[in-house]
Design brief:
mainly beta, Porin, two-stranded antiparallel ribbon, elongated
Length: 209
């Protein structure tokens, strides 16, 4: 977590340094209204499967986000995220993925006409999926796939630069942690519950309508 927090701070600081030469936006810019964009993330996922094992890996992810700004300082934002395969070298584990869907109020501090800092927090639906290759445990073969999911509390912070023609660039750090329950409740998963921590440092671009 410390490395991810440091990376996020470094990214936000870099955006702050860039805002002077990139001050191309109209000083009367108004960010009220709808916006939509995409993001690329560096991801750290930690999953503790009962007392069986603990997965702690880093990977990449893609996301789509958008929302509505009611004013230049308050809005609502939704984000859909999907990681790449983040499995480790555990025997019989073929793939492991994280997915999330969040909907959060967002508060922005406009430091200048072109640069702002924001924080957001709210409910986040997290899904953790494992795919197995002939998984055998407790003298039986389990299903070749298991899912755990739950609505958790997530939070994020970041920085944004306003460019011309409604284009916005941003860097953000998102954090979610909690316990997921077996999605289908069939007792076919290796564990009924999974403790997860999901961190993302993302770089995004969106269009403000």
């Amino acid at each position: 977590m410390k490395n991810f927090a440091k990376a996020a701070v470094a990214g936000i600081a870099s955006v702050a340094c860039l805002q002077a030469p990139l001050s191309l936006a109209d000083s009367a810019s108004d960010d009220r209204g709808w916006y939509v964009g995409g993001e690329f993330s560096h991801v750290r996922g930690e999953a503790e499967i009962g007392r069986l094992y603990k997965l702690d890996e880093e990977g990449l992810g893609l996301g789509v986000y958008g929302g509505y700004n009611f004013s230049n300082w308050f809005g609502l934002e939704g984000t859909v995220f999907q990681s790449n395969d983040m499995s480790d070298d555990r025997e019989d584990l073929a793939n492991a993925y994280y997915s999330s869907l969040s909907f959060m109020p967002k508060f922005t501090l406009n430091v200048s006409d072109t640069f702002g800092l924001f924080v957001k927090a709210g409910p986040t639906f997290v899904l953790y999926n494992e795919e197995y290759d002939d998984y055998y445990y407790d003298r039986r073969y389990w299903d070749d796939e298991a899912d755990w999911s739950e609505v958790l509390f997530g939070a994020g912070a970041g920085a944004q630069i306003k460019l011309e023609n409604g284009i916005r660039l941003r860097v953000a750090y998102d954090y979610t942690s909690g316990t997921l329950d077996e999605t289908w409740d069939t007792w076919d998963a290796p564990s009924r519950r999974v403790d997860v921590t999901l961190e993302r440092v993302s770089f995004g671009v969106h269009y403000q309508f």
